Amino acid sequence: MVLNYSERFLESLYHLWEDEVFCDIRIRVGDQIFQAHRIVLSAGCDYFKAMFECGLMEQKADCIEIHDMDPLVFKNLLNFLYTGKVYIKEDNCQDLLAAANMFGLQEIIDLCCVFLKQKLHRENCLGIYQFAETLACEELKMDAEKFINNHFLHLSKVEEFTCLPVDLLVKLLRSEYLCIEEEHQVLQAGLNWVLHDPSSRRKYIFDILHQVRIPIIPEKQLSDILDTCNDLSTKVVIQKFVQDFRLERQVSLKLHQNRIKPHMLNPRKSARKNIFVIGGNKQSDEWRWSDGVTVPTVEKFDTLTMDWTNMSDMQFPRSSHGAVVLNGQIYVVGGENDSLICDNVECYDPAADKWSSLPCLNYPRCGLGLCVANECIYAFGGWVGEELGDSVEKYDPETNKWIIDCIMPTPRHAMGVLECGGLIYLIGGLDADETDLTSVDSFNPVTKEWQQLPHLKVERSHLGVAVLDRVLYAIGGLNHSEGDLMSAERYVLDSDGWEEIAPLSDKRSAPCMAAVNSHLYVIGGQKWTDRFSSYRHYCSNPVTLDSMECYDPRTDVWSKLPYMPMDRCRAAAVVL
């Protein structure tokens, strides 16, 4: 048996075509004419097979014409029929896909769809979705729709979004899987689309409003959105719609009837934020200090149902590490285990409930700060071996590498790090002398510039930090003079300074913290059992906490939540 016969046969056909030997059909595409063999075209493409069997003039014609096609694209398709090879590039992929769709060449369609899926990004996803819908490429359309849902908040603010056809806009706003923070952002996106051309788009306002879950938007957020609406007619329609909706709901309650669709009363699935609590340290006041255990466990808290669920463990136990969310994946970086500082990095896919390894940091780090800015991950300071690090490392998913990005003005660890409005904020922590800091610095990841901001009112290290509506929060922590803290403060960006807010219900240091649906969640942490000692007095023993608290900025009130399945401190929390 000759194993390479099919390859040799195909190669011979190619050379016959290339030398125009035995060609019996000419094909005009634009201003070019291509020679080919009817039998090869018919064998490789049902379009040509049907054409040459139909009994019409093309069956006997010496020359046929293909309209509305680029000659280079057709040559690429013809090359595929003779060789099984096709050349796909960014500048020809969509034309090639359209042509393959016309000729029914499924192999090329599949290859082009895979190529476009790999090239999806914020600047082209809306266009690729509409292109895939036109050609009925369902899998590509689904991939583009998923990408749009995941990046909805960004896309809703770009010019291309305001040019969407109304039917596509309504479909997107209806999706259960929009990755939003709060429902008012859906209303704002729809309103921005209308206000782009109010005279011709007012008539669609009801189509848009019926996709918005009005009952779960707080009154103040509705009022703020209406205040920014500069089209009076649109504003009046929205006000009337909201009024009628609330009246309908009141009637439903009085009649004990569910006259409003249930999904309109609940957050969207992708907005029903879960808090993932990752790793950390577990300690008991009955144990010796050396008996503390670093854990690899991961627990998920559903902020809607208040239920806890165990997820897959990390590959390595770690505490004093960092964790962030980027492109729907959870990245965990650095930390320590049994006094060994880690440089390893792992990534969690929530859909598969699976962890995988990524390239390591340039230096092992624990007590570091971690955040995402401009689609990259930044790791700040922390202990690097026996020294306190002042370097900043940057990870770009595109290159899959960590690089040293810049140097911090003050080496520190156990600080809070967060991003807001394109800037990164470093809050409190400890310096190389183990001095508690009140300093707050902002870092511009584009210009690499640092700027000092107003100091905290209280020295804090091992604190919880979060950002909500352009307000920075510093919660709990500890310092040398007071030990564990229950005090809390906030800073409205660009204001004069920090201000105190209601204190926690209990003292806690090294908690993890998350901002979800206009509330702050403070989770776990530790508390020293001797109320007269600070963490400098190693004779005393800390105990890890399994309690949680939730803060409502509108009322300045903390409320207690269900206990965690396991007490822990120095963990990391992310929202997904």
Description:
There is one protein chain. With 576 residues, this protein is α+β, with helices and mostly antiparallel strands. Helices cover 28% and strands 27% of the residues. The chain is built from 16 helices and 37 strands. The strands form twelve sheets. Strands 8-7-4-37 form a four-stranded antiparallel beta sheet, with no helix packed on it. A four-stranded antiparallel beta sheet has the order 9-10-13-14, with no helix packed on it. It has a four-stranded antiparallel beta sheet with strand order 15-16-19-20, with no helix packed on it. Strand 11 (336-337) and strand 12 (340-341) form a beta hairpin. Helix 5 (93-103) runs antiparallel to helix 6 and helix 6 packs parallel to helix 8 (138-150). 35% of the residues are buried. Mean pLDDT is 90; it is low at 531-539.
Task: List key phrases describing it.
37 strands; 4-stranded antiparallel β-sheet; 576 residues
Largest sheet: 4 strands, antiparallel
- Please tell me how large the radius of gyration is: 30 Å
Distance between the termini: 57 Å
Strand order of the largest sheet: 8-7-4-37
**Could you tell me the number of beta strands?**
37
Helix run count: 16
